[in-house]
Amino acid sequence: MSTSPDPNTPPVADLDPGMAAAIAEMQQGLAEGGIPIGSSLVRDGQVVAAGHNKRVQEGDPITHAEIDCLRAAGRLPGGFRGATLYSTLMPCFLCAGAAVQFGVKKVVVGESRNFPGAPEFMRSHGIEVVDLDLPVCVETMARFIAENPALWGEDIGR
C-alpha cells in the first residue's frame, strides 16, 4: 500500500478544518495498514474529535471511521445536535444510523464515487449531506480498493 502524499491534495490551509482533520485520519489509517477512511466532528467551528477506520488494526468490525470519531468525542456537553460530521467517504448505513441517532445536523464527505453509502437515508432523517468529490479522497480509496479487494469487500459486508 502506498502512503506517499497525494499531489492532488489541496494544501491543508485551503481545506475546511473538519475535512483537513478527516483526511489526516484517512492517511494515518492507511499508514497503519488499515482501511483509509477518516472522520472528524466539528461543533461551533471547532474540531472536537477525529477518528479513522480501525477494523483491521483492532479486529473490530464496528470500528468504522465515523464510529471511532464519535467514540473519541465522548459525551459532549449538549450532545451532538448542531454538530457536523466529516468523512472522507460517504457513510454506510451503520455510520449514517449513528449520525441520525445522535442528531448530527450535517454530514460533509470527501467522496461517494467508490462507495455510494447512505445519503438518502440521512437526508430522509433531516441531515444535510454535502459531497465535496475531492480527488485525494477518490484516488486514495480507489487505489486501496484495487490493491485490497478482499479486505474492502469485508469492510462493506460483501
Structure description:
The chain has 158 residues and is of the alpha/beta class. It contains 7 helices and 5 strands. The protein has a 5-stranded mixed beta sheet with strand order 2-1-3-4-5. α6 (135-147) crosses α7. The longest helix is centred in the first third of the chain and has 15 residues, at 17-31.
Labels describing this entry:
alpha/beta; single chain; 158 residues; five-stranded mixed β-sheet; 5 strands; 7 helices; disordered N terminus; globular
* Major sheet strand order: 2-1-3-4-5
| First-to-last CA distance | 21 Å
Order of helices and strands: HEEHHEHEHEHH
Rg (C-alpha, Å): 14 Å
Give the overall form: globular
Uncertain residue ranges: 1-9
Q: What helical percentage do the residues reach?
A: 25-40%
Mean pLDDT: 91
Alpha-beta content class: alpha/beta
Secondary-structure topology with pairs:
Blueprint: H1 17-31, E1 38-43, E2 46-52, H2 55-58, H3 65-73, E3 84-87, H4 93-101, E4 106-109, H5 119-124, E5 128-131, H6 135-147, H7 149-155
Parallel strand pairs: 3-4, 4-5
Antiparallel strand pairs: 1-2, 1-3
Helix pairs in contact: 6-7
